[in-house]
Amino acid sequence: MKQLCGIDEAGRGPVAGPLVMAGVILKDSIDELNDSKKLTEKKREKLYDLIIENSIYHIVSFEAETIDNLGISACLISGLKEIMQTIPDAEYIFDGNTTFGISGLRCQVKADVDVPEVSAASILAKVTRDRYMVELSKKYPQYGFEKHKGYGTKAHIDAIAKNGLSPVHRKSFKIKSLEQPTLF
C-alpha cells in the first residue's frame, strides 16, 4: 500500500512575495494538525518543527517574478510535479478543487482540514512563506511585510501607493484601487 502524500500551498493570492508549496508524508501521527489558517502563529511554529522531525517532505517556492512570467497556474502545476517527482511512489492528494490535469493526483476541497498529511503540508508552506516575508520586511521595511505577509491589506496598498512596487511585488496582479481611470 502506498503512503499518502498531502500537498498544499500558501501565497496564491498575495500581491507580494512567493508562492510556497509543500508535500508531506507523515511517519508518525501528530496531534492538533489543522488548516494552517485556523491555527495561531505560535501553534504553527510549534507544529512546523514536529512535522519536519516526523515526515518526509519537500518544499517548493516560486518568486514573484516567476509568477509574473509563467502565471500562477503554471507555477502550481510545476510545483505539484516537482513534489511528486521528489517524493515518488505515493498516493497524492492536493487541497482544492482541481488536479490541473495531472495524472496520479487527486484533489479534495477542505483536505487541509480533513487529511492530516495535507494539514501538515499547509503548515509547512505557510510557516515557510511567513518566515520569508518577515525576512523581506527587513530589506523593504516601508511595506510592512512582517504584518500582512504581502496580502492586499489597506496598509499594504497605501504603502504601494506611497512607495511604488518593490522587486518582490507581483506586477501581473492588478490592484483595482491603484489603477488609473481611462479617459476617452
From TrEMBL:
Cofactor(s) the record lists: Mn(2+); Mg(2+)
Alphabetical UniProt keywords: Cytoplasm, Endonuclease, Hydrolase, Manganese, Metal-binding, Nuclease
Record localization: Cytoplasm
Stretches assigned to the RNase H type-2 domain: 2-184
Cofactor note: Manganese or magnesium. Binds 1 divalent metal ion per monomer in the absence of substrate. May bind a second metal ion after substrate binding.
Similarity comment: family membership: Belongs to the RNase HII family. RnhC subfamily.
Protein name in the entry: Ribonuclease HII
